[in-house]
Write a structure and sequence with these properties.
- The protein is of the alpha+beta class.
- It has 4 domains: 202 residues, Porin chaperone SurA, peptide-binding domain (Triger factor/SurA peptide-binding fold, Orthogonal Bundle); 131 residues, no CATH class; 107 residues; 107 residues, Chitinase A, domain 3 (Roll), CATH 3.10.50.40.
- 46% of the residues lie in helices and 17% in strands.
- It has 22 helices and 17 strands.
- Strands 14-3-16-15 form a 4-stranded antiparallel beta sheet, sandwiched between helices. It has a 4-stranded antiparallel beta sheet with strand order 10-5-12-11, sandwiched between helices.
- Helix 7 crosses helix 22 and helix 10 crosses helix 20.
- The chain is flat.
- The chain starts with a helix and ends in a 12-residue tail after the last strand.
Length: 635
């Protein structure tokens, strides 16, 4: 049914643009062509402001962590691919462009609007408790606190406001949708004949002279070369290495613990019960006065008998979520409740009852029933955490002290890295590399700048140490080539089997294409022998044909039938087709209503994309991706 359109959404949108949006001229993102340099290089700029490699790495790591929280059993390495990394960078660029647009247009989302969206958006219902407060457990599982949620909502709403007017302006009629789908899903009755290189390969036996000529041909010889490579040694000075070297005692740890008491203090939480008398923000003054009077009356009764507060809440509170439990809201921290409620609750002492508090929900009478947190964690409980932080800070200090000395040492004693390794107690590492970082490389061996230095003429000729290159924040790397092997053609005897396979494939492909072309010429003269039985062909019903063949047959001029088409599908396949008649689309393939919605959404996406591309041009969004993309974010 509609599954074809859903699973072929990219194809549908592409053809839709061709059919009904020929005037769109989308400004593509500038190519990923520039190499990075420095330890924290700029990988993109928007409105003159840089997006750094570190920000890209951070966005990618956050992306993986978000997926891990949603799917704990997920292998995060599956998402450590160039495509996923590029998606993270594209998202960063998009956010910066939309933020720049919002600033230029002076768009502001008020606190009230953010609060209203949180309370009313059904997509955020899973983050709300019954009384409208934040569900802290769910929020924590998303890796956020209340303030982060508010800012995330504000940012998302601001960006949506930028593109909302455009995406919501599309007028897509059912007639237009039907026309587009008629073109997309048209069926054709065809006869097919296929010519495959594998059917010709068995009859091809190239001689020794042919093999040698193919092997020596400059157009083919690159297939039989061993690539340029080098065996290298390299030395890394970074925080991880220095953490193992720093020393400290128990007094140092306790001093840090005392000086950073706030970091080891449990946030204060309060437990309260409340009675709510609802009054909508838009209610009349008379209705609000009536609700407030009712709350004042309940306040008087609560203060007269504080022990009966729970029973009073059960009978009178209009908060359906907490009333059955006597108004109990459990423990909450700052930022979890609306501001007036929070301020009142955090100003009460245990057992005290507040005055009537007004909020967007109405009028509250609050009784504080408990307080916890606000106390400093015991030193022994956080000792490991303190030790890690002290170790990190000492390593950072040590790095700052010796970075220049390390740089000078590898330069001044340039015939070996061993003196620097001994002096700074670092381990020499070995690797075999090529001129550019390997796909998926991580750490120093992903640094384009290091490889440029390593394969410079000086380093190659004299096998000297490279300069100390900053390959990441707080990381210096020096390397030297131990043995260099230039690119070279392997002896024919060693690659003869591969040469034969390649030559046979080439000759068989040429024969298959020639046979197909000859058959097409004969078909046009009326020789019908060899064609298969008539079949129905369409995009949903592709008959196991390559996409290129299906598209060519469906795009062929069918104004005069029968029409004959020949298609070189590549990979040694040639298909001859005779188009017999045109048929309307199969109504069972799609649901009309959902198709119209899909059509409108695709058009809206295209309008939004065009507007976004124009904004990228306006705010000079330029992407300069390094050859070695994000350093590995997956642990």
């Amino acid at each position: 049914m509609f599954e074809f359109v859903r699973t072929h959404n990219r194809l549908f949108q592409f053809i839709l643009l061709i059919l009904i949006l020929p005037s769109f001229a989308l400004v593509g993102m500038q190519g990923y062509s520039s190499f990075m340099d420095g330890s924290n290089p700029s990988v993109a700029t928007v409105d003159g402001r840089k997006i750094t490699q570190a920000e890209w790495d951070g966005a990618h790591k956050e992306q993986i962590e978000r997926l891990r929280r949603q799917m704990p059993n997920l292998d995060a390495k599956l998402f450590d691919s160039p495509e996923i990394k590029r998606e993270a960078l594209d998202t960063l660029v998009r956010e910066r462009v939309l933020r720049a647009t919002a600033s230029a247009q002076h768009l502001v989302i008020s606190d009230e609007r953010v609060q209203r969206t949180f309370l009313n958006d059904p997509q955020l219902a899973f983050l709300r408790n019954a009384d409208g407060s934040v569900n802290k457990a769910v929020l924590a599982a998303q890796g956020m606190n209340s303030q982060m949620l508010i800012e995330r909502l504000r940012q998302d709403m601001t960006m949506q406001q930028v593109v909302g007017a455009v995406s919501g302006s599309v007028l897509a009629t059912s007639a237009n949708a039907e026309l587009a789908f008629d073109a997309l899903l048209q069926q054709r009755e065809v006869q097919l004949q296929r010519f495959d290189a594998k059917d010709f390969a068995a009859r091809i036996e190239p001689g020794e002279a042919e093999l040698e000529a193919f092997y020596k041909d400059s157009a083919n010889s690159a297939q039989f070369q061993l690539p340029e490579s080098a065996q290298i040694q390299y030395l890394v000075l970074d925080l991880e290495a220095l953490k193992k070297q720093v020393t400290f005692n128990d007094d140092d740890l306790r001093k840090y613990y005392d000086e950073n008491a706030a970091r080891y203090t449990v946030p204060e939480e309060r437990r309260a019960s409340h009675i709510l008398i609802k009054a909508d923000k838009a209610a009349s003054a008379a209705d609000k006065a009536k609700a407030k009077a009712q709350a004042e009356e309940l306040l008087a009764r609560a203060r007269k008998s504080p022990a009966g507060f729970a029973d009073l809440a059960r009978k009178n509170s209009q908060d359906d979520g907490s009333a059955p439990s006597g108004g109990d809201l459990d423990f909450f921290g700052r930022g979890a409740m609306v501001k007036p409620f929070e301020e009142a609750a955090f100003n009460l002492k245990p057992g005290e009852i507040s005055n009537v508090v007004e909020s967007d929900f109405g009028y509250h009478v609050i009784q504080l029933t408990g307080v916890r947190g606000g106390s400093k964690k015991n030193f022994e409980l956080v000792r490991n955490e303190v030790e890690q932080e002290v170790r990190k800070q000492l390593a950072q200090k040590r790095f700052a002290e010796i970075a220049e000395l390390f740089t000078n040492t590898v330069y001044e004693q340039s015939d070996s890295l061993q003196p620097a390794a001994d002096k700074f107690k670092l381990a020499l590492q070995n690797a075999t590399v090529q001129r550019t970082p390997a796909p998926g490389a991580a750490g120093p061996l992903a640094s384009v700048k290091l490889f440029e230095s390593l394969f410079s003429s000086e380093a190659l000729r004299n096998k000297r140490n490279t300069e100390a290159v900053e390959t990441a924040a707080n990381q210096l790397t020096a390397a030297r080539i131990v043995q260099y092997s230039p690119a070279r053609l392997q002896p024919l005897a060693d690659v003869k089997t591969k040469v034969r396979e390649q030559l046979v494939r080439k000759l068989a492909t040429a024969q298959a294409v020639k046979a197909g072309q000859d058959r097409l010429a004969a078909l046009k003269k009326g020789e019908l022998n060899g064609l298969g039985e008539p079949v129905i062909l369409s995009r949903p019903l592709a008959r196991d044909l390559p996409r290129k063949v299906v598209e060519a047959i469906l795009a062929a001029d069918a104004s005069k039938l029968p029409a004959d088409v020949g298609v070189d599908a590549g990979a040694g396949t040639y298909v001859v087709s005779r188009i017999l008649r045109l048929l309307p689309r199969d109504p069972a393939v799609i649901d009309e209503k959902r198709a119209a919605q899909q059509y409108a959404q695709a058009w809206s996406n295209a309008e939004t994309l065009a507007y976004y591309e124009a904004l990228k041009t306006r705010f000079k969004a330029v992407v300069k991706a390094p050859q070695a993309a994000v350093s590995s974010a997956a642990p």
